[in-house]
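Chapter summary example.
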Amino acid sequence: MDVVKPELERREIVRTRLSSLLIAASMVAVLAAPVAAITFGTVDVENRYSNVGGLIFEADGEFFLGCTGTLIAPTVFLTAAHCVAPGERVLVTFDPSIDPSSTMLPGTARPHPDFACCGASDTFDIAVVLLDAPVSGITPASLPWLNQLGQLSSRALRDATFVTAGYGAVRDDKGGGWKSLRDSEGLRSYVSQTVNSMTKAWLNLSMNPSTGNGGTCYGDSGGPHFLGATVVSITVTGDRWCRATDKTYRVDTAVARDFLDEFVTLP
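The structure predicted for these 267 residues follows.
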């Protein structure tokens, strides 16, 4: 597991074998009431975030769930650079419940060429997966205009509600340590967040349940943070126990947009 600071670890888990995710379709069907997932979140039973997918890796005939990401064009999947290697062949699924029978879409990873080159102030931790064929039936997420977050007033930023979605580890009680984390069992889930602070490259979001927030955990790397229908940042890291701070990489910066401009039409 990559470490940014001793207390901040990237939101990538040891890749979980999909054969262990024995989730029956009938189980999803009975989740009529809100169910905790991500951290202090809700399982996406209604498939609200259909453009949020899981990043899947294959090795020796087995499939592994590694990270999360978002469809931003019919053939472009946005994720984090620390999830992939340049030119790596990977799979993506947009199924809200991932198991060995899920539809897997092949693609090629393209991380930012300057990833991790230049210090913690900007790690260039952004990547895309170029899918072999266009995805149909799913509306890609919108991208922000240049410095969209920076153009908000301090009050507007403080009052804004962000939503994150992903397939990562789950916390649904306020206890500390590993004992309160559990596997998501392949279910996509979502939760709302508010802002702690913002820098040139980073949007730091609250995960504190005492203030009504939830957030990401191991396996949610690369996943989106939405403002409305727009992906304004992606998950990179946070506190070790997925309980306090969500450190996300802004995609409205000139650096992120220069990278994305090669693959998508920007607003």
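To summarize the output: Residues 1-9, 19-37 have pLDDT under 50 and may be disordered.
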